Amino acid sequence: MQHHIQQEERESKGAFFIEVEGKRQAEMTYSKAGTSMIIIDHTDVSDDLRGTGAGQAMVKAAVLWARENKIRIMPLCPFANSVFKKNPSYQDVLK
Q1: Which among 60, 56, 31 has a CA at the least distance from the CA of 45?
Q2: Residue 23 DSSP SS3
Q3: Is residue 53 part of a domain?
Q4: Straight-line distance from the first to the last Cα atom of the chain, in angstroms, rounded to the nearest whole number
Q5: Helix locations, the chain, DSSP H
Q6: Count of domains for the chain
Q7: Which of 8, 38, 46, 57 is the least crowded, having the fewest Cβ atoms under 10 Å away?
Q8: Could you give the CA distance from residue 52 to residue 57 in angstroms, rounded to a whole number?
Q9: Mean per-residue pLDDT over the chain, rounded
Q10: Full domain range(s) for residue 62
């Protein structure tokens, strides 16, 4: 399933998210730690999107964004951390 990942940032926080019919169905939130690192602190996927790869798609979007912007990621969220552990190709952005 193809997911359209969006991103928002406000001051020291941000999120990658998926909306379906105008409603947020999945969200991965982060906090900024300075200008060169984010801390992923929570991932939530609705029952409707569970099992569709939505969570992994949001982590991948964060990795691509981090590479593009020379930012490191600290995945404190257990889900995000498990995705990083399963994907050796993501290690370059880990803090």
Answers
A1: 56
A2: strand
A3: yes
A4: 30
A5: 54-69, 78-86
A6: 1
A7: 8
A8: 9
A9: 96
A10: 6-93
